[in-house]
Amino acid sequence: MNMSRPQRKTSPPTGRTAYRTLEGWALGVLIEQHAVTECDHHGHRRDRSDADAWTRAREEAWRNPFPGSTPEACIAALEDVMQSIGDTCPDC
Ligand SMILES: [Zn+2]
């Protein structure tokens, strides 16, 4: 057993844009996995109702949770953000 290497609790940034809030991070994951898209004309977020993308976003949140948050809190944040997003652009 190697006792000389203390376990690090924090991991270094992994290249993803540094989000300041869990909600911002959650939205970023949803856009990254194409569960949410932005209207080309107005920039409003739309829920794409894509079950596969939603599953990918949750898996990604589980594997790479927002720094300082538990995977459970990250999944909950994804669901909160998703509920706040409609499936149509209000200005289209
Ligand atoms: Zn629009």
Fraction in beta strands:
5-15%
Average per-residue pLDDT, rounded, comes to: 88
DSSP E strands, number? 2
By helix and strand content, what is the structural category?
mainly alpha
The unique ligands bound to this protein are:
zinc ion
Tally of separate helices: 3
Question: Whole-number radius of gyration?
Answer: 16 Å
Oligomeric state as shown:
single chain
H/E series: HEEHH
User: Within the largest sheet, what's the order of strands?
Assistant: 1-2
Task: Report on the biggest sheet.
Answer: 2 strands, antiparallel
N- to C-terminal distance: 62 Å
Give a written overview of the molecule.
The chain has helices at 22-32, 51-63, 71-83; strands at 36-38, 45-47. It is mainly α and 92 residues long. It is built from 3 helices and 2 strands. It has a domain at 22-83. It is elongated. Bound molecules: zinc ion (ZN).
What is the topological layout?
Elements: H1 22-32, E1 36-38, E2 45-47, H2 51-63, H3 71-83
Antiparallel strand pairs: 1-2
Helix pairs in contact: 1-2, 1-3, 2-3
List keywords for this structure.
92 residues; mainly alpha; two-stranded antiparallel ribbon; 7% strand; elongated; binds zinc ion
Short description:
With 92 residues, the chain is mainly alpha-helical.
